[in-house]
Structure formats: C-alpha cells, structure tokens
Amino acid sequence: MLAYTFRRLILSIPTLLVISLVIFLLLQLAPGDPMAQVPLTVPPEVKQKMREALGLGQPIQVQYYKWIIQFFWIEPQVLVDHWFGTAFSEGKQRVISWQTRSPVMDIVIQRLPQTLWVVGLSYIVGILIALPIGIYSAYKQYSVFDQAGTFITMIGFSIPPFFTGPLLIVLFSVQLGWLPSIYDTTHVVTDWASFKIQFYQMIMPVMVLALQTTAQLSRYMRSSMLDNLGQDYVRTARAKGLREGVVVMAHVLRNSMIPVVTVIALGVPSIFGGAIITENVFKVNGIGQLLLTALFANDIPMVMTLTFIFAILIVLFNLIADVLYGVLDPRIRYD
Fold first, then answer.
1. CATH node for 107-296
2. CA–CA separation, 183 vs 281, rounded Å?
3. Do the beta carbons of residue 115 and residue 288 sit within 8 Å?
4. Could you state, in order of their start, the residue ranges of all structural domains in the chain?
5. How do residues 150-192 score in pLDDT, each as one tens digit?
6. DSSP labels for 194-207?
7. pTM across the whole model
8. Reported confidence tier of residue 57, pLDDT bands at 50, 70, 90
9. pLDDT digits (tens, 9 = 90+) for 27-40
C-alpha cells in the first residue's frame, strides 16, 4: 500500500502540471483587461509601468513559468517563514492579485476559516444525517420511512440553493424573525452569548448546503446497501445464527461503504472551494465569494491559484479514496 501511494504521488506531479497549463491557457483567452479599473486620470506611461509590474507585458510562457516558480517554490517558503520565523522568502516576488495588489495566498488564508466553518460543517452534518437514512431505508425497503425519505431527498436534490436560500430567509428571517439573514464574518466568539450568535447565523447556510449533501449521499448509501443485502454472504451469515445487527452493521455496511467513500472523498474539495451561490446569498465572506469576485474582476492570478488548489485537492482525495478501498475491503490489493 505504501509503494502504491508513493507511485501515485509521483504520477500526480505531471498530471498537476498539465492541469495548471490548461487552466493558465484558458484564462489567457478570457476577455477583459485588469487595467480597465484604473482611473482615466492616470497618465499612459504610468499605466504602462503598472502593466509591466503586474507582468502583463511579458510573453505567455514567461508568465506561466514565473507563476509556477512562485506557487511551488516561493509560497512554500513563505509558509516555512511563518511557522519557524526564518527569512527564506524575503524580497522574493509572490503571486499578486491584480484586483487587490496583495499576495493571493494571504487573501485565501483570510477567507478559508469562514468557508470551513459554514461549508465544512454542512458537509459533516449532511454525512451524519445521510448515512443512517440510507442504511435504514435500504433495510426497510418500500416502507413508509423509505418512501418518505425518497420523496424528501428527491426534493432536496432537485431544488437549487439559489431558491432554497432566499426561501429560508423569507421564512425564518423576514416572517418569523428567528435567524439573521446576513452572515457576520467579523463576529468573534468569546463567550457563551457570542457563541449563540455564531450558532444562529450559521443555521440557515448550513441547512441549505446539508440538504443537498444529505439528498445525494443517502441515495448512494441506500443503493449500495440494497446491492449487498441480497448477496450470498448475507444469507450465510444469517444461517450461521449471527444477530441481525451484526450482519447489517459489521458485514453489509462495511462492503456498502466502498462506493460511498468515493462520493464522500470527492466531495471534500468542494468544502475548500466553498459554495459560490450559498455564500453570496447569505453574504458569507468565503472562498466561493472570493472566486466569483475574482472572475468578475478578471483577476487571473487569483482565479488560477484558486482553481489549481481545487485541482490539487481533487487529485489528493482521489488517492485517499483509493487507499480507503484497501482498508474497507481486504480483497483489494495494490501490490
């Protein structure tokens, strides 16, 4: 397993380089000019110097090479300097946002906690709700619980967040006045009272995102459980006199989790990517809103860095899912 993991990590390097090149070339085709936001009163020679400072006057291959060096070599040095108080990155050019004129990774790190609080918690809540629903729906197939769960999950999977979010705001904020409609990203939790405020403002965005996660995972869990409940090893385990709880939870569930692990693992990068629509509906100042703002501003360094981080996470969690296959199913070996 260790040798397989090492081989996959080595193979992921050229994969990520190709992905980064494709992303860079696609963004180069995007219309717009980052200098368009500069006031008209700025003299042309000053604009030209600003353009050169942003790297806009250099060939495409030079821009790409500089970005690769900055992302893979300079930014890790900045992280090491922050952790250990060294000065490896001092005086070196970092990836700079065209919109804010500040380092891209600094902005990402500032926005990441808000996204993890809201989107990450909603993903965990969705998993904790979806797995029991899927297991019990499969075990009690065609029961009232199964029919009701199928109906609710289909609604949750079909209704988009840009409809669910405003609907909850109208119901719980405007009509009932129970919950705040806008997420205050400046709020700091210091005591029990401030924790309750944080909890209340997280309820609606977490509900909106958890609904979709629950709808998707519960259907996968139900389908996988049904496939395994009819297998010969289940009948053999029951014939040997094992308790029903042991048969379902120890044997059927473990084999049923193998395909579900893929869905869960591949969904983790979406946590770091944020929920663009939901974050904008509830004014959560997270990664999703940052990406949308960068797209509108034609901020190529910001968009490229964020999308490439998402690509790294997808490749990484694909590897994690493959490793978990071997943990869950002893029949799977990578030797």
1. 1.10.3720.10
2. 9
3. yes
4. 107-296
5. 888 888 777 777 788 888 888 888 888 888 888 877 777 778 8
6. HHHHHHHHHHHHHH
7. 0.77
8. low
9. 777 666 666 666 66
Question: Is residue 122 within 8 Å of residue 203, measured between CB atoms?
Answer: no
For the record, the structure tokens of 142 come out as 């065609």
Retrieve residue 269's tokens. Answer: 């990068």
- What is the chain's mean pLDDT, rounded? 80
Say which amino acid occupies 115.
Answer: T
Full DSSP string of 56-107 = TTS-HHHHHHHHHHIIIIIHHHHHHHHHH---TTTT----B-TTTSSBHHHH
| Whole-Å CA distances, 38 to 7, 35, 101, 238, 298 | 48, 5, 12, 74, 13
Distance CA 266, CA 80 (A): 29
In sequence order, the 6+-apart residues with CB closer than 8 A to the CB of 174 are 181
What is the pLDDT at residue 95?
80
- Identify the three-state secondary structure at position 85: coil
Cβ atoms 286, 272 nearer than 8 A: no
Cα separation of 274 and 284, whole Å?
Answer: 10
Q: Position 153: which residue type?
A: T
